[in-house]
Write the structure tokens for this entry.
Amino acid sequence: MVGVEHFLRLYEYLLKRCRAVIPVSQYLADRINEKIGIKKDKIFVIPISVDSMRFAPKAPSDTFHNLDVKDQEILLTVTNFRFPDKVALLEEFFPALARIMHIYPKTVFCIAGGGPYLKTFQEKLKNVIRPLSQRIHFLSYVKNMESLYSIAKIFVYFSHLDALPRVILEAQASGLPIIANPFGGIRELIQHGQTGFLIHSEEELFQSAKRIIEDDRLRENLGKQAREFVNENYSPQAIGSLWIKVLKQIQSE
């Protein structure tokens, strides 16, 4: 929330003088309307797109063979450890993930992303991490994300600072079911019970992950519908058509 407020204050002068404002999510559009007072008829939501040819269900890559995760149930998250509002919620929900790992011995948790708050995160949760250290992998920055998605079974994402997280779209396009908290633009990306689960507590996280781990058919259906949702709404073609429509509308006014 602090990040969005800071952005709005920083660009308020410029935004008020724009002919049109184009945010990436309805969440951000509503904040611009409420906090700056820009009329809704001057705000046009155009989300980011994702390349569903690059990000697609694939055979597991051997890029991460050093992790020794063959035949493991990999829970994956990607976060930017430069922002405390992103890290704080991962800290809050981490014990529920550890609980899953204790119950299901083949479960592995991979965390991609780096930043100055990573060491702080590891230090705060050292008592939780230490008993599971062989099954928790901190991968830092990963360039070839499509290979990482290919070895994962569930994508989890928690944040209090997001307008529209691209990594959720990439994971969905890769055919992964999503578990995330319904903050900001995140809720616009997940159809609860159809493409994944929106959770509000540690217990909801635990129960959602448990359902997916124990039910292969559910996992496959959630992942399939997630990819279909992205192809229909966030493909370059869909977003390109929306840009053309919006620009024509702005030009005609």
